[in-house]
């Protein structure tokens, strides 16, 4: 009997397991390290910012999306509507997200019952944006940043720009 002969010895399972286990551990370590380097810095900064309370949410206008985050369409709009009498009242036209446009104006609404010239101008601005860009939602803001005219909002008639 030749028990000491390595040719006849039973194979060692420890050697077979060691290579795949060490390979898997190496892959896991590399995956973890790569995952750390691709983390989103914005998520980290958002986590550090304080949560908005009910009072701070109520104080902010419903469409308080900074213009810097959207796509500026001011030049396109002013070029297309260069002869409009209210053109000088446009501060900015921003697509805040796909299909949503926010128009900042220098209009001030006296909130007259019969719809003053400012309201008519704001509605004309809204209708011009709808016909030019075809968005699903438009908000025309007064000079102080409050909503003046909306399109695509449940509080206004469907398919119409209306003062709120």
Describe the structure.
It is a single chain. The longest helix is centred in the N-terminal third of the chain and has 25 residues, at 13-37. The protein has 164 residues and is of the alpha+beta class. 16% of the residues are buried. The protein has a six-stranded mixed sheet with strand order 1-2-3-4-5-6. The chain has helices at residues 13-37, 41-48, 54-59, 74-80, 117-133; strands at 71-72, 90-97, 100-105, 137-141, 147-151, 161-163. 38% of the residues lie in helices and 18% in strands. The model is unreliable at 31-68 (pLDDT under 50). The N and C termini lie far apart (100 Å). It is built from five helices and six strands.
Secondary structure elements and pairings:
Blueprint: H1 13-37, H2 41-48, H3 54-59, E1 71-72, H4 74-80, E2 90-97, E3 100-105, H5 117-133, E4 137-141, E5 147-151, E6 161-163
Parallel strand pairs: 3-4
Antiparallel strand pairs: 1-2, 2-3, 4-5, 5-6
Features:
single chain, 164 residues, alpha+beta, six-stranded mixed β-sheet, 5 helices
- Unreliable spans: 31-68
Number of helical segments with 4 or more residues:
5
Strand order of the largest sheet: 1-2-3-4-5-6
Strand content: 15-25%
Instruction: Output the helix-strand order.
Output: HHHEHEEHEEE
Helical coverage, percent range: 25-40%
- Radius of gyration computed on alpha carbons: 31 Å
The chain-level structural class is alpha+beta
- Head-to-tail CA distance between termini: 100 Å
- Give the biggest beta sheet: 6 strands, mixed
* Overall 3D shape: globular
Mean pLDDT: 73
Number of strands: 6
Can I get a quick summary?
With 164 residues, the chain is α+β, with helices and mostly antiparallel strands. It is built from five helices and six strands. The protein is globular, with a radius of gyration of 31 Å.
């Amino acid at each position: 009997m030749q028990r000491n002969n390595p040719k006849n010895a039973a194979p060692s399972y420890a050697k077979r397991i060691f290579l795949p286990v060490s390979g898997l551990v190496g892959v896991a370590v590399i995956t973890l390290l790569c995952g750390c380097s691709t983390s989103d810095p914005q998520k980290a900064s958002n986590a550090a910012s304080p949560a908005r309370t009910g009072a701070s949410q109520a104080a902010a206008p419903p469409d308080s999306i900074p213009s810097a985050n959207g796509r500026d369409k001011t030049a396109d709009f002013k070029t297309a509507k260069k002869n409009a009498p209210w053109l000088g009242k446009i501060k900015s036209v921003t697509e805040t997200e796909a299909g949503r446009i926010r128009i900042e104006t220098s209009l001030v609404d006296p909130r007259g019952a019969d719809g003053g010239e400012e309201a008519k101008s704001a509605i004309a601005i809204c209708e011009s944006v709808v016909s030019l860009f075809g968005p699903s939602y438009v908000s025309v803001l007064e000079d102080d940043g409050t909503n003046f005219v909306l399109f695509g909002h449940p509080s206004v008639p469907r398919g119409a720009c209306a003062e709120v």
